[in-house]
Structures are given as C-alpha cells and as structure tokens.
Amino acid sequence: MKKALLVFLMITLVIGSLAGCGKQPTTQDKQEGDELNSYTFKLGFNTTEDSVRGEMSKEFKRVLEEESNGRLKVEIFPTELLGSEQEQIEGILVGSQDFSLPGGGAMSNVDPVFGAASLPFLTTGYDDAHAKMDGEIGDYWKQTALKHGYKILGFGDLGFAQVTNSKRAINSIEDMRGLKMRSPNEPVLIGTMQNLGASVATIPFTEVYLSLQQGVVDGQFNPMDAIYQTKFHEVQDYMAQLNIFYYNINFLTSEKLWNQLDDEAKEIVQKAADAAIEVSREYYVNGDVEYLKKLQDSFKEVTEPDTTEFRKAVQPVYDEFAKKIPADFAELLNK
Questions:
Q1: pLDDT per position as a tens digit, 120-147
Q2: Counting CB atoms within 10 angstroms of each CB, which of 25, 208, 224, 242 has the fewest?
Q3: Where does the signal sequence lie (predicted)?
C-alpha cells in the first residue's frame, strides 16, 4: 500500500513539472530569470516609403529593434498595402495590424473631436502646434481614443497648408473672393473656403494637377512639400503663406495590444514612437524653409498676408463645429 502511494506521488510531481514548462513568458517570469515574449508588429500607412510617414516608420523600426535587441520587431507596409487609411484605422481594432499613422481628418470618423485638427488657424506655427499636441488638446484626443479602444502614442507633423491659385496674388481676404478652390471632401475645409468667399469643388488628390492645368479650379491648398513634390507650381502662379490649416499624424495602436505588452516593451514602443514623431517635426520645421526657397523661385509671387481678417471670417466654422463636440472641448479650443 505504501509502495503504491509513493508511485502515485512521484507521478503527480512529474506531471506538475511538465505543466510548468509549458507556461507562457510574462513580466514576472523575467524577474525569475526567463525571457519575455518576442513580438513582430505590423505598421501600415497610406503614403510611400519616401514620404514623411515612411521616414517615421523607418525611425520607429530602428529604435524599436535596437532598444529591444531584436525582441521587438516591426514589418512596414506603405502605400495602402493594408488597406485605405480608414480601413487601417478599423484594422487596428480587429487586430489585422498593430500600428498606423492616420491624419486627423480620417480620425474624425472615430469621434468628431478629432476633426478639430482641421480647424482653420488652430495654431499659429510649429512651436504653438507642438505645444497644443503635447498639451491639453492632445491629452483630450488621447483620452477620447481610449474610449473607442484606441491608444495614441503621440502626434507628428504633416505641415501647414498654404494657398495657391492661378488668378492673382493674395494680399487680403478680398483677393480670395470669387476663386474656385479645390478641397478634400471634409466639411471643415469646405466651410473655411466658403467663409473666405471662394467657391469649392471636391476633387480627389490624384486629379488635382490636371484640374488646375485645365482650369477646372483656380487654386488649392496643401503643405509646401506636397505643392512642390506634385509640381503644382507648374500650373499655378501665386502662393499665399497663410498657414491656414495644420495637419497632424496620429501614431495609433489599440488599447488591447498596449495592455498585452509587458512594461519593458511598452517603454521601448513609446520611446520608438517619440523618436518617429520627432523625425516628422524636424522634417517640416527644417523642410519648410527649403521648400519655401524653391517655391519662391517657381511662382510669380509669394505673399504673406496679415491673417486677422481671415481669422474673423472663419469664426462660423468654429461655431458650427462646436455643435458637434462636448462643451468642455469647445472651451479648450477657444483658449
């Protein structure tokens, strides 16, 4: 009887030790001497590898893999390989990808408060923009994202939009009246142009050059790098430096994925995202200086109008937008 009991106890110990060998690594396991989980992430975006998003993704990959000694890796999928910008935002939640770099306009489909990124003259320059993105407005967006299952790691730059046209130099708001402007199909952008006295045609970005060349529209608005790279200066004569819209990039992941990461992985991912965001900011702060020189040589005239009257004219855009968002956020925007 004692012999049978001894055999039973030995079998129980063996089974218990085998079960322990199959346990998944955790943060606690590392403290006991084992390794943490390895991860291979997917990062997708809607532009090319040589775009600012491409440069951000390369820096994210470099820092992530170096800081983790290869424990954390990322595969990069540019040019909508994982779907459109909106599809990739949705893919973050369903787990078909781990990170994406959508703009504020696309994020407005998640919650209206993200549409504030497109409000005219929201910021006065890059220093002010970065202060707002890293301050109360950015914090509000981050908290809103969590309510929808997302986590925003920070905000990168996509530049300030300048206004070009083929009719006349813009020195005051009066010079905007009567122009037919191309706009993306976003209510805030359309409303801004209309309140400045222009009419609007919504045209896909890929068709803008031809539309300008053929006179379907008189002008358009985009950051200077986009204006130069797409050669809009070949079919436009005038540019006004208005800094009318500030475009941002949301470094996006899901709250679910974030909560699954161990503390060390979270720290490294955030550090890599911060480095990527800094790349985008340096790209535009320094790049705008160079692109301005090139465009001054390309356009007949580049002006820098006083924006006081422009700002007054677009107040109805803010009033209309305020109806769609919580009152506390509307107050924050008007600070």
A1: 999 999 999 999 999 999 999 999 999 9
A2: 25
A3: 1-19
